Amino acid sequence: MGVIIIVKIFITQETRKKWGMLNTIEKLNVVAEHPAVGAKVTGVDLRKPLSEKLAQLIREIFFRYSVLCFPGQKINDEDQARFAALFGFVDRNDRSKGDPDNKQSKRGVMYVSNIREEGKLIGVLPDGEMHFHSDGAHREKPYRATTLFAIEIPITGGETKFAGMAAAYDALEGGLRSRLDKLEARHVFNYNKTTRGEMRHDNDVAHAVHPLVIIHPNSGRKSLYLSRLMTSNIVGMEHEESEQLLNHLFDHCEKTQFVYEHKWAPGDLMIWDNRSVNHARNDFPSNQRRLLRRYTVSDPDN
Ligand SMILES: O=C(O)CCC(=O)C(=O)O
Ligand SMILES: [Fe+2]
Description:
The protein is of the alpha+beta class and 302 residues long. The strands form five sheets. It has an eight-stranded mixed sheet, covered by helices on one side. Strands 8-18-10-16 form a four-stranded antiparallel sheet. A three-stranded antiparallel sheet has the order 12-11-15.
């Protein structure tokens, strides 16, 4: 997208010895993908543990761009969990109940897939379009970040879109911004529902209330915290007024000026910040296989 930022790390002989096998990392290339959000990072092999210095640099790049893609990675499950843990807590507790074939035996991991084996889905969020949302908004403590690693990708469709919610907030008119600063909204989630129309908004589904504008703890930037899929209503507001304001804001933050659309290739590892971006998925043909491995990152005290 025109902006090219090259971050070079020069490694002394001394450090090279200390880092041992990390001697291939001499240059990280960071290329912005969109003015609002997203960057591509090359020059790092995530099969290997990173030095604390490099990890810190990657975190800084992440806080600046909110969405990073590391293309061409050949990582396994463990590598992805280790990468995710650079950003917070990754739940590695066992939930397989002793089933050795359970690929999703660790709590933090899930497969996003439409593949069926013996008629049974091997993952979650299988088919079609998904409306914009932020992972875990229905929880008291939402997920900090989500990582997705592409294993099989359809030829057409299935792109994931990322909306920069800080840029969307900044672009609002000042009066509206200060009004929103004081509001709270309720967010809901019920399993495998992918559009606002399907989502149940009653009290029996998992839900949580959060401020409508949140401040990122690392960048200090304010972001809109609301989404078409998950935000049911603004607290204390009449239904009609709440729907009107929410729909106005959904339309606003989904404008192309705030949205980076990622066309996946196998080997792409993406991480996004759920505190400053929403994501959504384009429709794709149901007869084409799609398989991605997903680790979420939580606050350490979760
Ligand atoms: O399938 C996708 O592209 C996104 C799925 C999703 O929303 C997620 O993994 O949180
Ligand atoms: Fe999601």
